[in-house]
Structures are given as structure tokens and as C-alpha cells.
Amino acid sequence: MISYKKNILLLTLCAGFIVSGCTEQKANSAAVSAKVDSAPTQLISNHEQPKQELLQALRFFEDSCGFVDGAKNNGFDASPSEKDFDAFKSSFIGHDSNAAFEDQYYLKPLSSIPKQYRKAIDDIQADQDEEGSMRYSVYFKNATYRDHDLEKLVIFFKPETDYAYDTLYFKNKNFVDLKPSFKQVYVDWLGGYSSAVFNLENNSVTCDYSR
Prior knowledge:
This protein is of the alpha+beta class.
């Protein structure tokens, strides 16, 4: 598993020095300690960080999984929202098609992600199972979609197959209020409607391409 994790720096303050036979140093240490203890406590601001709205990167989900405007020309025209979503995914999903035996997928450096999205991401994990299927899990921090708090985005695909889906998870069940914004489009070559599927049990919406 490849993961970006916040590095936690543990700072240990060593107060006082034990020096055999040196009473003067002990006195100085006590004096410094007294000054510190008597100093007024400085309150550290703990304001909540501003939330990052990710509508532009993730509008793909409400645009019937990219088929709004993209349903023209038998569905082969990518919609603007699909292009935005693909650009977001490709900023952290690496793909090497020149590998010796098969395509290789990997996790790009965090610096590859555009700044407006990077600050909304807490961690990204990439996993590959025994069958070669890839799963990218993007964990959000202070991120919203139409002002609804986001938890994570899961991107799953099996290379060289149609087995793939994208799932967007919300933190609260009030995400169902977004339903009126999510569209359905009839696509001739699919023989039916295309739209994201709401799951009320795990607070998610899914675009499933396994047809």
C-alpha cells in the first residue's frame, strides 16, 4: 500500500540538567522554571480551517456520471465535468503503458495535485489486489460538495476490462438533499438511463461502469 501520511513531529522539551556538584546550575534552572510558570498563558487560536468546495472537480457525479452533454454523438463526446474529473484523477493516478509486461499504475507525488485540491486532501492510498485491480482511496479534510461535508472518494478499476466504478462518500446522511441536483440522461447506446446511484446506508453516490 502506498500512502501519503502527515508526518507528526514529536518535540520533547528537556527541562533541567543534572550536574553532579553544581548547585549554581540547579538554582538557575529553578529560576528559569519559575519565570516560565509565572508567565501568562498564551491562548492559541484554534479556528476551524476554511472548507474547500470541490464542486468543479466532482460535478461529474451529478452530471449523470458524465453523460450530460456527453450523451451526444453516441456518448463519445466527453462532457466538461468529465474532463474536470479525469484531470483531478490523473493528478494523482500514475500510469505507465510502456511497462515490460503490462500496464503499471502507481501513486504520483502529492505535489502533482493542483493546489486548490491538494489542501482538501488528508491522505491518498493506492492498493492493488492479486487480480491486478486498482483501488485509489482519497481521504478529504475540510472538503465539501455543494456545502455537504465529504469523507472520501474511492476509484476502483480492473485494467483492460469494463469493471470500474467511482464512489463519493459523505459524512452525513443529509447528503440526500443533493438528489435534485443529480441528473438522469437516456443514452441510446446504453439502452437506458445513466445516473449516479445513491446509497443511504453508507452515505455515498456511485458511478458504476460495469455494464
